Amino acid sequence: MTFKDGLKLSQATSKLLANFTYLSLLEVIGLLLPLISYPYLIRTVGANYYGIVVFAQAIIAYIIIVVNFGFNVSATRRVSESRDNLLKIKQIYSSVVYSKLMLFLISAVVALLFLKLIDYDHIDVVCFFFGLCVQEVLFPTWLYQGLEEMKFITIITFISKCSYLLLIFIFIHKAEDFVIIPILYSFGGILTSLVSIYILKKRFNIHFVKVEFSQLKSDFIESIPFFSSRISSVVMERTNVIAIGAYFSYEMVAIYDLCTKIVSIVKTPFSLVAQVIYPNVARSKDMIMVRKIVKPVFYSGVFFSLIIVFLSKTIVHMLGGIQMYEAVSILRLMIWYVPIVGLSYLFGASVLVVNGYSKEYNLSVIYSVLFYLLLMSLFSLTKKINLYTMTFTFLLPEMFVAFYRIYVTQKYRLLK
C-alpha cells in the first residue's frame, strides 16, 4: 500500500468514525430526550390518555411509511454515488421531496376518510401529528447520510428535541392536556424541516430544481423494493399497537409502548452501525468491513439484552411507576429483538442490496409479513390476542428475516 493509499484509507476511516459519532448522537437524542419526558407524561396525563396519543402515533406511522416509500435507502445510495455531481444531487433531492409531498397528500386524505368512516373518536389527535409527516417530506436525513455530513442534522435535531422537552413541562399540567402532546411533536418536526432547508441552501448550495416526470417515475420505481422492507417493520410493530388498543384498552397500549421504547434505545447502536457503513460499503463494495463486525454486533446484542433482563424491574418502575409494572415480563421477552435485528440490519442493505440482491432483500420482507399475518390470524381466530402473543408476533418475523438474509448470504458467498 502506498502512502497516498494509506492516507485515503485513514481519511475514509476518520470520516466513517465522525459520522458514526454524529449519527449515534442523533439517535440517542431522538430516543433519550422523549424518554426523559415519559415519566412526567405518564404520571400527568395518565396511562389511558397517553395510550390515546400512542394509538394516534401508530396511525401516523402508516402515513409516514407511505411517504418514505423506501427513498431513505435508494436515495442515500444514489447521493453517495453522485456526491461529486452537485446538479445530480439537486435533482435527486428535488425528485424525492416532490414524490414524498405527493404521497403525503394522497395518504393523508385516504387515512382521514377511513377514520371518519369507522367513526374514530380522536381524529383531531391524528391531525395534530401531521407535522411529523411534513418532517418526513422536508427533512432529508437520507441526503446527509449520502453526503456523510451528519453534523448538521445532529445539531438541528438536538435543538428541536430540547425545545420539545422544555415545552412539555411548560404546557402539560393535567390529564386533559394530552392533546397538546402531538402539537408539540409537530412543532419540532416543522422547525427541523425549515432549518434544514436553510442549511442545505447556504452550506451546500442544494435547493429545489425542476425535475422531469421521467425521473420522478424512475426514482419511484427504484424505491419500491425498499418500501416493502420499511413497511414490514411498521406493520409488525404498529399493527400490534392498534390490535391491543382495539381488543383491550389504551392502558395496555401504554404498557406495550413503554417496552418498545426501551427496546428501541438498546437497538440504536446496531441500527447506527448499519446506517453508517451502508454509504461507505455501497461506494466501495468492501465486504471485509461487514464481515469483521458481524460477531461483535451479535454478541454485544446478547450482552445488552441480558443486562436489560436483570434490570427490567428497576427500569420499568423508574420510567412508568407501579401502574406500569406489567411491562416487566413483556420487556424481558421483547428485548431479545435486539441481537436479532442487529444481524438483520447488517445482512440487509449492506450485504444483499450492495451486492445486487435487492430481490432477495425484498423477498425476506414479504415472507416475514406473510408470516406475521399468519400469526395474527391464528391468535385472532383462537382468541389469544394479548400482550404476550403480540410480543411473539413482534419477535418471530424478525427472526425469520435475519435467518433468511444470512441464508442467502451464505448461499451466494457474498461475504467472501
| Terminus-to-terminus distance | 21 Å
Would you tell me the overall average pLDDT?
86
Order of helices and strands: HHHHHHHHHHHHHHHH
Helix-strand category: mainly alpha
Mass-distribution shape: globular
Low-confidence segments, ≥5 residues, pLDDT <50? Answer: 3-9
Structure description:
- This protein is mainly alpha-helical and 416 residues long.
- 85% of the residues lie in helices and 0% in strands.
- It contains 16 helices and no strands.
- The protein has helices at 3-44, 46-68, 71-81, 86-117, 123-128, 130-138, 141-147, 151-171, 180-204, 213-247, 250-284, 287-320, 327-334, 337-353, 358-381, 387-411.
- The protein is globular.
- The protein starts with a helix and ends in a 5-residue tail after the last helix.
- Residues 3-9 have low confidence and may be disordered.
